[in-house]
Input
Amino acid sequence: MAAVVCNSLILSGVLFTMGVLGVMVHRHPVVIFMCIELMLNAANLALIAFNRHQYSENWLTYDGQVYAFIVIAIAAAEVAIGLAIIVALFKRRTRVDVDEINLLRG
Amino acid sequence: MAAVAVGCAVAMLSAKNPVHSALWLVGNFVALAVIYLILSAPVLFAIQMIVYAGAIMVLFLFVIMFFMAPRARQWLRPPLAGQLTLGGILAVVLLLLLMWGLGNGAIVPSMEPEQPPSAAAQAPAGEEQGAAVPPLGQPVELGKWLFTWQVLPFELTSLLLLAALLGAVMIARDVASEGRERGREHAPVVHDRQAGGEG
Output
C-alpha cells in the first residue's frame, strides 16, 4: 500500500478516535455534534484513501469519492436536524446538558 | 497536514468555549480538505471547503451565537467524575483496535489482490500501463461515474436532503409558532378587556 494511503488511514483512525473521545467526554450538545462531524470526516478520509488505493492498483473507480460525497450530504442533513433539535431545546430551557435531557425516558 | 489536522482536533476537544471549538474544527476541515487534494480528489476538496468549512460551520456558529447566552458559552459543568479517564481509556482501546485492524488489513490486501488487478489490468495493459489508466480525480470523470453507476444513491440522497430540510423546519418551527399563536391569542383578549373597561 502506498505510503500516502497508509498514512491517511492512520490519520483517519486517529481522528475517528478523537471524535469518539469527544462524544464520550463532552456534555455540550453542540460540541458533541462537532465531534460527530469529526468522525464523519475521518470516515470520508478513509473512503477517499481507499479509492486512491484502488487507483494505485490500476483499478479506476470513483466509488469511494462518490460515497464520500454522499456522506457529506448526509452529514449536512444530520447537522440540520440535530441543530434544529438543539434550537428547540434552547427555546424551551436555558441550560442545555445532555445529561439533563431525559424527557424521552419512559 | 496530518499534524495540523490532529492538532486542530486536539485543540477542539480541549477548548473550553464552543466558539473556539468550532473555529478549531474549521482548521481541521481545511487540513482534511488539503489531504483530499493530496489523495487526488479535487472535487471533494471543493465540496469539503464549501459544505463543511462554509455551510456547516456557519450553522454551528449561528446556533452558538444566537441561542446561547454569553455566559453559557462554556463547559456547562466539569465532566462527571471519572468520565474523562474512562473515556480516555476507551478511546485508547478503540485506537489500538483500529490500528490493529489496519495492520492486519494492510498485510492482507497486499498479498491477495496481486492477481485480480493484474488480471484486470491485462486487458487495457495491451497498450501502455500509464496511458491505459487515466489520471484519478478529474471532475468530468467523477461526474460521469456519479451519474452512470451511482444514480440511485444520488437520487436517494436528494430525497433524504429534502426530508431533512422539511424535518428541520418543522422541528425548529414548532415551539416558535406556538408562542406566536399564544401571543396573538392573548393580545386581542387584552384589547377586548381594555375596550370593555373603557366602554
Remarks:
- Chain A has three helices and no strands.
- Residues 63-92 of chain A form the longest helix (30 residues).
- Chain A touches chain B through 77 residues (CB under 8 Å).
- The radius of gyration of chain A is 18 Å.
